[in-house]
């Protein structure tokens, strides 16, 4: 049975305190969320005539070295009329969905959050990950949240979970928005890090007002 974590709690991903072991050859980090139902009250007035509004929350992974830094910022490439930065570097995000090692990738970019279960998934082959990487930080940001006046106070049932290769859920950290998250447009949800030959999972839940993960990234350069 998966462990429901609280903020700051850390667990061993390889086996739990009941002796249950997990296959870390491929671990799915799943992230999900729902947008609070609109009504005729404050939110109804806020959103207008009851039309559904799309929320585009993006999952991002920072691969950090032993110094807690991103060693490879990737390169800039041109796609169509746009320049794409940080391509094939140590940041996995919607414009660079697969790490050049092939051991971590984003399965897709869900732009609405519609549907049950994981809305976005990042898959990591932890057993194959180079020793050059000591920690993976998982961040979720609301795309253009500032411009669209969207924030985590309007999001509920948000979670991050770790699932092993066989489909067993190892741990889950849930976070439902309330007034304390008003104006919060991104969140450092959790991290996976090496410890004593194994991998640990830590629930972080650190809020940020910026809607750009690049701003958060500056702390790791």
Automatic annotation (TrEMBL):
Q: Which Pfam families match?
A: TerD (PF02342)
Does the keyword Glycoprotein belong to this entry?
A: no
Query: Biological process GO annotation list?
Result: response to tellurium ion
Q: Which InterPro entries match?
A: Stress/Tellurium_Resist, TerD
* Keywords noted in UniProt: Tellurium resistance
- Entry similarity comment: Belongs to the CAPAB/TerDEXZ family.
Annotated protein name in UniProt: Stress response protein SCP2
Organism of provenance: Mucilaginibacter gotjawali
């Amino acid at each position: 049975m998966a462990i429901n974590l609280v903020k700051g709690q850390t667990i061993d991903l390889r086996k739990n305190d009941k002796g249950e072991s997990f296959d870390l050859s491929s671990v799915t980090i799943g992230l999900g969320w729902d947008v609070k139902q609109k009504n005729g009250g404050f939110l109804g007035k806020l959103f207008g005539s009851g039309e559904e509004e799309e929320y585009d929350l993006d999952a991002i992974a920072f691969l950090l070295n032993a110094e807690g830094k991103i060693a490879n910022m990737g390169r800039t490439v041109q796609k169509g009329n746009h320049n794409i930065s940080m391509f094939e570097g140590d940041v996995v995000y919607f414009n660079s969905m697969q790490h050049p090692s092939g051991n971590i990738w984003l399965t897709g970019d869900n732009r609405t959050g519609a549907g049950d279960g994981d809305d976005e998934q990042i898959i990591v082959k932890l057993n194959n990950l180079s020793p050059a990487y000591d920690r993976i930080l998982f961040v979720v940001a609301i795309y253009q949240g500032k411009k669209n006046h969207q924030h985590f106070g309007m999001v509920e049932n948000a979670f991050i979970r770790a699932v092993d290769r066989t489909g067993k859920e190892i741990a889950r950290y849930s976070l439902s928005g309330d007034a304390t998250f008003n104006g919060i447009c991104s969140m450092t949800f959790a991290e996976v890090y090496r410890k004593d030959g194994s991998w640990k999972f830590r629930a972080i839940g650190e809020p940020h007002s910026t809607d750009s993960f690049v701003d958060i990234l500056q702390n790791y350069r």
